Amino acid sequence: MSLLPVPEAQARLLALAGPLSVEEIAAAACAGRWLALNVTSRRDQPWADLSSMDGYAVRAAEWPGPWRVTDISSAGGALPAPLARGTACRIFTGAPVPVGADAILIQEHAALTGDTLRGEDKPLTQGQHVRPAASDFRAGETLLAAGSQLNAARIALAVLAGHGVLPVRRRPIVALLSTGNELVAPGAPTPPGRLPSSNAPMLAAMLAAVPCDIIDLGIVPDDLPALTQAFIKAGEADIIVSTGGASVGDHDLVRAAFTEAGGSLDFWKIRMRPGKPLMAGKLGDSVFLGLPGNPVSAHVTAMLFLLPLVRHMGGAASPLPAITNAQLAIPLPGTGERDDYLRAFHGEDGIVSVTSQDSAAVAAMAQADCLIWRPAHSGAAGAGDIVKILPFPL
Ligand SMILES: Nc1nc2c(c(=O)[nH]1)N[C@H]1C(S)=C(S)[C@@H](COP(=O)(O)OP(=O)(O)OC[C@H]3O[C@@H](n4cnc5c(N)ncnc54)[C@H](O)[C@@H]3O)O[C@H]1N2
Ligand code: MOO
Fold first, then answer.
1. Mean pLDDT of the chain
2. What is the distance in A from the centroid of ligand 2 to the CA of 275?
3. What is the CATH number of domain 50-131?
4. What was the ipTM of the complex prediction?
5. For 316-342, what is each residue's pLDDT tens digit?
6. Which of 51, 203, 334, 390 is least surrounded by Cβ atoms within 10 Å, i.e. has the fewest?
7. Cα dihedral sign for 202, 253, 342, 281?
8. CATH number of 324-391
């Protein structure tokens, strides 16, 4: 198989499954989820002309008064009567402005003697401290598009628009499978030849940035029947992610076990560094993503493939990672046959690549906060040049 360019591999991966089913969830529990349908407003906001300050509703042209205070308007209280000429209405923040009034005299600029009011400071202008009806949004207006992600501000908007529950896509269930005879559970003793399995905790941390549920199926040895059984068990998940055993060594059995379990492989080997041995396929309704075992390769391929897949199945309209421009603080050599994804961080003078770009260099990766994307066959870059970067999800 020849090496697949990253965008082609991403497109093929996302084509393996559509967004999951729709569920109605309380708005307060929707943080991070993607809308399955447009959100249309059920009400005007504000519902009437409302005061934005505590004071007195008056006619601006009548400033500085005197006015006689004849009524009161408070948020949630009875509607005030229309304002007669020469009168004022005591009013509080968020309360409806009486018909006839067109400005609010704030109480700091008002002198009240008995029920006689006079304006101080500067003359009032029409509309001063009044929020017009429907100036934020109007009933029937489409406020949020299907496929947009619900953050705190969008949840506030949907609730103010009259929605208590929102249609979102089900959270994908992601099964994590760590393969390798050398691996022991995190924190377990590491006699010679053994090392702690760090990939599943790392992936769980990355997945914390997107709505999904994780099933950690633990460590599976490099043994065909054991790996096959693990894949069969993982078939309950929407997404099956393995790490390790993806390359060409005698112990790299992931492809064989996946096929033995009934899976069909869609692609293997990507034109990227690190992450070349990445593979993907379908096992029943589950999408399978086989990440390389090297922790750095697993991290980079999770950013470029796993998180987009979770977003896509969760209903995101734009599931691919955000790519932004940034200025290099250091020079970079040209690239070869594959796209490079260099681990880097934001320094005072721009982006700095970490010293070791080895795909097993975890201490160097731990200094990074982003990847620099350098397409294949790029020339050398100098300090001050603009490059494309992808921020780490967490
Ligand atoms: N002859 C070739 N050898 C290799 C090639 C190749 O094309 N031809 N590709 C290399 C590339 S690129 C990568 S990346 C690695 C990926 O190999 P595997 O996916 O088969 O990974 P393993 O061999 O199982 O492990 C690699 C490395 O990572 C450590 N590891 C594995 N799992 C974990 C884990 N859960 N936590 C921490 N560390 C883990 C493992 O001990 C190995 O050191 O293959 C190259 N070889
Ligand atoms: O592509 Mo591997 O992922 O170089 O280390």
1. 97
2. 4
3. 2.170.190.11
4. 0.98
5. 999 999 999 999 999 999 999 999 999
6. 334
7. negative
8. 2.40.340.10
